[in-house]
Design goal:
By secondary structure, this protein is α+β, with helices and mostly antiparallel strands. It folds into two domains: 1-45, no CATH class; 48-175, Roll (FAS1 domain), CATH 2.30.180.10. 45% of the residues lie in helices and 21% in strands. The protein contains nine helices and seven strands, in the order αααααβαααβαβββββ. The chain has helices at residues 2-21, 33-45, 50-56, 61-70, 73-77, 89-93, 97-105, 107-115, 125-129; strands at residues 82-87, 118-120, 135-137, 143-149, 152-155, 158-167, 170-175. The chain has a seven-stranded mixed sheet with strand order 2-1-7-6-5-4-3. Strand 6 (158-167) and strand 7 (170-175) form a beta hairpin. Helix 4 packs across helix 8 (107-115). The termini are far apart.
């Protein structure tokens, strides 16, 4: 009986975490309820690794699937700090089945492609905004050009669409495509 209660409690926590991460209940009202939901979301994700956030947040399902194939999911849970520029599932699907299958068929190449999305250190949007025309070194060893045009920030040509998702071991930025290294 106690085991079942613990399982039910754990499942309830997972459902609440998923709801918070996907934005359920985050609509603003005149009382400022969205601010408290955002605070709760930030507190929750700050206690999770980048890998756990990617697992619970459905918008990273395709990226996480590729990470599993490449064998780099442990890197997303490593001590860090790291910053991950994770393409949302919509942008991965836009690559097309042939391109995705090609990436999955060459695990060594896929690993490099995905490691282009990870840099050491915990960055914020403010950090990136001050780096226009400069490069970041990805864990793959390749250089990613940072671009800033007004309120638009790009990393390796991919547009940052959501930033500053705080994690226990770093930060996650949602980008609209695969990042492309220099050269």
């Amino acid at each position: 009986m106690r085991r079942r209660a613990a399982t039910v409690a754990l499942a309830a926590v997972a459902v609440v975490a998923a709801a918070v991460l996907t934005g359920c209940g985050s609509s603003a009202d005149d009382d400022g309820a969205a601010a408290s939901t955002t605070t709760a979301k930030e507190q929750l994700t700050a206690r999770m690794t980048v890998g756990k956030i990617a697992t619970l947040d459905g918008q990273f399902a395709q990226f996480l699937d590729l990470a599993k194939v490449a064998g780099i999911t442990d890197e997303l849970d490593a001590e860090g700090p790291i910053t991950v520029f994770a393409p949302n599932s919509e942008s991965v699907v836009k690559l097309g089945k042939a391109k995705i299958d090609g990436l999955k068929g060459n695990k060594a190449n896929l690993k490099v492609v995905l490691e282009n999305h990870v840099v050491e250190g915990k960055l914020t949007l403010a950090d990136l905004a001050g780096m226009n025309g400069k490069t970041l070194e990805a864990v793959s060893g390749k250089q990613l050009l940072v671009g800033v045009d007004g309120n638009v920030v790009t990393v390796g040509g991919a547009k940052v669409v959501k930033s500053n998702i705080d994690a226990e071991n770093g930060a996650v930025f949602v980008v609209d495509g695969l990042v492309q290294p220099e050269g």
